[in-house]
Amino acid sequence: MDEIKLIDRIKHGDRRALDTLIKAYYQNIFAYFYYHTQNREISMDLTQEVFVKMVASIETYENRGKFRSWLFTIAANHLRNHWKYESRHEEYEFEEESENDITSSLENVTDSAELLNALSRIPTDQRDCIVLKYYYGFTSREIAEMLKVKEPTVKARIRYGLNKLSILLKGEETDGEEQ
């Protein structure tokens, strides 16, 4: 898929090009949100909101860097804003999903429920960096730009997060200390 041509077509009002671009990234953006929220409905809402933001701002997209990085930057910022909003308002009551809903959602996210559980138990900033690096293949530099932190910070978060994951996957509890 030639994203530059698709984006140019979208800027000229081509609805099919927009549909193609959304279909190409929808599952990745959904999975990103699902890792962070562990809730299918919230993840679907956040994903749709990101694509609305993408459509609203695609006119300003300049072909500098990768479109994928630009889109994940929107997603990371949207997630950060979502958590800020939630911290100021009533907490979500996460509904219990049926086993089939969880299974079908996880099939596209990861093959290991144990890994998903361990990821949910490490600090969000470390989880963000690990997911972006190992699940989506972004470099530390790209992640730093997306999250608006320095590259050494990203590398440290990955290192600490991987250490905690290793401990959790071996069945030991973390000491509760956030690094």
TrEMBL record:
<dbReference type="InterPro" id="IPR036388">
    <property type="entry name" value="WH-like_DNA-bd_sf"/>
</dbReference>
<dbReference type="Pfam" id="PF04542">
    <property type="entry name" value="Sigma70_r2"/>
</dbReference>
<comment type="similarity">
    <text>Belongs to the sigma-70 factor family. ECF subfamily.</text>
</comment>
<dbReference type="InterPro" id="IPR007627">
    <property type="entry name" value="RNA_pol_sigma70_r2"/>
</dbReference>
<dbReference type="InterPro" id="IPR013325">
    <property type="entry name" value="RNA_pol_sigma_r2"/>
</dbReference>
<keyword id="KW-0731">Sigma factor</keyword>
<feature type="domain" description="RNA polymerase sigma-70 region 2">
    <location>
        <begin position="21"/>
        <end position="88"/>
    </location>
</feature>
<dbReference type="InterPro" id="IPR013249">
    <property type="entry name" value="RNA_pol_sigma70_r4_t2"/>
</dbReference>
<keyword id="KW-0805">Transcription regulation</keyword>
<dbReference type="InterPro" id="IPR039425">
    <property type="entry name" value="RNA_pol_sigma-70-like"/>
</dbReference>
<dbReference type="InterPro" id="IPR014284">
    <property type="entry name" value="RNA_pol_sigma-70_dom"/>
</dbReference>
<keyword id="KW-0804">Transcription</keyword>
<protein>
    <submittedName>
        <fullName>RNA polymerase sigma-E factor, putative</fullName>
    </submittedName>
</protein>
<dbReference type="Pfam" id="PF08281">
    <property type="entry name" value="Sigma70_r4_2"/>
</dbReference>
<dbReference type="GO" id="GO:0016987">
    <property type="term" value="F:sigma factor activity"/>
</dbReference>
<dbReference type="InterPro" id="IPR013324">
    <property type="entry name" value="RNA_pol_sigma_r3/r4-like"/>
</dbReference>
<feature type="domain" description="RNA polymerase sigma factor 70 region 4 type 2">
    <location>
        <begin position="113"/>
        <end position="165"/>
    </location>
</feature>
<dbReference type="GO" id="GO:0003677">
    <property type="term" value="F:DNA binding"/>
</dbReference>
<dbReference type="GO" id="GO:0006352">
    <property type="term" value="P:DNA-templated transcription initiation"/>
</dbReference>
<keyword id="KW-0238">DNA-binding</keyword>
